[in-house]
Design brief:
The structure holds two protein chains of two kinds. Chain A is an all-alpha fold. Chain A is 73% helix and 0% strand. Chain A folds into two domains: 1-81 and 100-121, Four Helix Bundle (Hemerythrin (Met), subunit A); 125-165. Chain A is built from eleven helices and no strands. Chain B is mostly helical. Chain B is globular and about 55 Å long. Classes of the chains: A mainly alpha, B mainly alpha.
Chain lengths: 201, 363
Amino acid sequence: MEAKTLLFYLFSAVLLFAALRVITARNPVHAVLYLVLAFFNAAGLWLTLEAEFLALALVMVYVGAVMVLFLFVVMMLDIDITRLRQGFWANMPLAATLGLVMAAEMVWVLSTDFFASGVFFNESMPADYSNTKELGRLLFTDYVYPFELASIILLVAIIAAVVLTLRRRTDVRHLDPAKQIAVKHADRIRVVQMPAEKEAE
Amino acid sequence: MEDSVLQSFQWFWNLFGLWDWVWGWFAPLWPLTWWIIKILAIFVPLLLGVAYLTWLERRVIGFMQVRMGPNRVGWFGLLQPIADGLKLFFKEVILPAKADPWLFFLAPALAMAPAVTVWAVIPFFDGGALADLDAGVLFLLAVTSLGVYGIIIAGWASNSKYPFLGSMRSAAQMVSYEIAMGLALVCVLMVSNSLNLTDIIRAQGQGVFADYGAGFLSWNWLPLLPMFLVYLISGVAEINRAPFDVVEGESEIVAGHMVEYSGMAFAMFFLAEYANMILVSALVSIFFLGGWLSPVGFLPDGVHWLSVKMFFILLCFLWFRATFPRYRYDQIMRLGWKVFVPLCLLWIPVVGVWMMSPFNIWK
């Protein structure tokens, strides 16, 4: 067997196992860590497809930043697992239907001529081909408007999230570091000269 | 280099007249062996560097604070790190009763692994990298961003208050300063037009000053001076060193995520922290101080220059620790988000306009 095929099966097996554990793990922190493992193996799969930018960006953005914050939140939550499991069977039919629809859609997309033809994956690029550079060139030439549009939508989402959660509290004292640094000792300390007390006679 | 190593093996086995027999079964294993030799050639000096960095830190800070530092074990205390290592090695590793047993022992490994893995792409001399990746900088950013997991998991798995507070602090701090570091690197990538670390160093060897033999003025630190400072300071914050060491601030939360660890499990965190220190010094040297390049034209380039630059940066880290009081937590966040990130966002268009103008110095 070719090394690449072997790697593919290794990454896929660990990916499937980790994905399964994400939804079956009892402890939410364990579930998040399995999700991290799943992302890592997905990145490995993309590396075997010579998509090194996507693979490294996945590790950098999802594993390095998003999942860290996710873990942060999950650790802070006070999760009662028995209460979470109460609605399991009641919600099962809806969840199963949604899952089946998604699986059917994926099968439908992947069985189209575009993916089935295989031209997509078999072409191996020369060693000096830089995936990152090509992607950057495309993003800033052919797809510059969709790209900028996407970034503006994300910016709007960021600002909306900040505005929705910003609470201006009036009962806290704010510090202005510039003012703190500019303070001179004369502003804070008053030296009072007092005459020495008279000796008791 | 591979050939000369092979020849020395051949010479050795020929002393016994066994070369043909040895090579007969060893030939298919040679590529793997060569990789392992290269990995050890990076890993062993790294561990020695970590050991003697702890000694250097205690001696240098001792000198700055007018005291002795370790000077009893060996000549000038030079055997002190070995003694400390042996002590930690033979201590009991205690597992707290309510800790998560798997994650508790996974955490030190997760802290150590990225600190060592990143060295695969560091070029020590021209062509002297274990893996000369074209996406080297991406690999580096991806792997260093994993270092925070060891700390967070350690804090949570210990099931104790101080470690948890420490890990919460580190999660927020490391994610914040990664952004400033990444944005500072964007400027470096723009001027060197490559993601390959070797190419980034080579690009710094070209320029007006380099042509006159004063190469150190052509390195990135001068034209990108604000980014150099941002990267250096963010680097200190990223490795949780003083004055940004709130993650393990002794006076507040004892030792942060490491409170419940003992013996070798603790030593792994310690090793990871110092390996990261050496790593950040190497990265600053590569991105801004010309890596292996010689500062002046009449001296040869080579790995010794990288060592000198790394040593200088490491001394600065020790110097910071002996000089500055610990930052308050909200001020760390303020510095990262309200000073460094806007400065980087401002400097990226400045460099972009500079590169498009007739005054472009990076052609």
